Amino acid sequence: MTPQPDTTESVGRTYERFAEAGASDALGGNIHAGYWDDDPDVPVAEATDRLTDVVAARLAPGPDARLLDVGCGTGVPAVRIATTHRSRVTGIDASERQVAEASARARRSGVGDRISFRLADAGERLPFDDGHFDGAWAIESLLHLTDPGAALAEIHRVVRPDGRLVVADLCRRERSADDEAVWDGMLRMYEIATIATPEEHRERLAASGWRVSDLSEVGERVRPSYGHAAAAFRELADGLAPAARQEITAAARLMESFGRHPHAGYVLITAVRD
Ligand code: SAH
After folding, report:
1. Which residue ranges in the chain fall short of pLDDT 70?
2. What atom in ligand 1 is closest to the CA of residue 69?
């Protein structure tokens, strides 16, 4: 009998497939949404870096601050923040391949001495001492966790008092029966555990000891991302074997429907460890 893979391994594999298909190259190496201020013509690869900059501005790390990147992906945000803010960054991810790619990127980056990546499950006890970090961020990773509250409590444990956590994540503006298929499709396709409402995001941070100092719903600033991602998927689909092509074309269709959904939102949250 083949043992069932655990969810974390499985989430890791989703991102590995995504990376294999080259999809993250289309996003400037980031595996997250873009953020558009006022100019809609900014290319998507720039807009994804802009989202990282918005997260970093909320963290406002002092020089040499020790930061934790929860669900670091291929390390593009970590390298950017270590470079622009002179921070020391530790990234964790549940995917071995992401960690290997992130580590290689750090070595090439010129700030490799300030960055390290390790394989760790954000749903488990984190391999760090209490108060080890000055701050933490999580870009589009908490949505994969079956118990995000427990993860937030662990991040709270490893961040020092007064340290900040910045969360950038999808949200569902309202819960209604409308287009349930789109939401279910997104959850299944990207192995997402939950897309929380802004209020649920706020509540679970508060329940795990964080004081939310700002929660902004910026769904309209990230909305163009879905169209760009769908276009990139379609472009990739052409060069793939039939099964992969079918999968990525379905992903493109779903992205488009999600991008049109009026309840598809996005939160940027700054929380402080009291
Ligand atoms: N933050 C990165 C990657 C976002 S994609 C960026 O902005 O580019 C989400 C990432 O979360 C993936 O790399 C995935 O492997 C990771 N992830 C999912 N579940 C996780 C878990 N339980 N623990 C740690 N990382 C996880």
Report:
1. 1-24
2. 1
Q: Which sign does the torsion angle of CA 97, 242, 27, 137 carry? A: negative
- Total Cβ atoms within 10 A of residue 63: 8
Report which of 228, 216, 198, 219 is spatially closest to residue 266, judged by C-alpha positions: 219
CA of 140 to the centre of ligand 1 (A): 7
Query: Which of 93, 143, 166 is the best mutation target for the ligand 1 pocket, counting ligand atoms within 8 Å of the beta carbon and taking the most?
Result: 93
* Ligand 1 site, CB within 6 A: 8, 11-12, 15, 30-32, 71-73, 76-77, 92-95, 98, 121-123, 139-141, 144-145
Residues 122/114, Cβ–Cβ less than 8 Å: no
Atom of ligand 1 nearest to the CA of 123: 22
Q: For the segment 17-61, what is each residue's pLDDT rounded down to a tens digit?
A: 666 666 567 777 899 999 999 898 999 999 999 999 999 999 999
Supply the DSSP string of 160-206, one letter for each residue.
Answer: EEEEEEEEEEEEES---STTHHHHHHHHHHTT-S----HHHHHHHHH
Q: 3-state SS string over 79-134?
A: HHHHHHHCCEEEEEECCHHHHHHHHHHHHHHCCHHHEEEEECCCCCCCCCCCCCEE
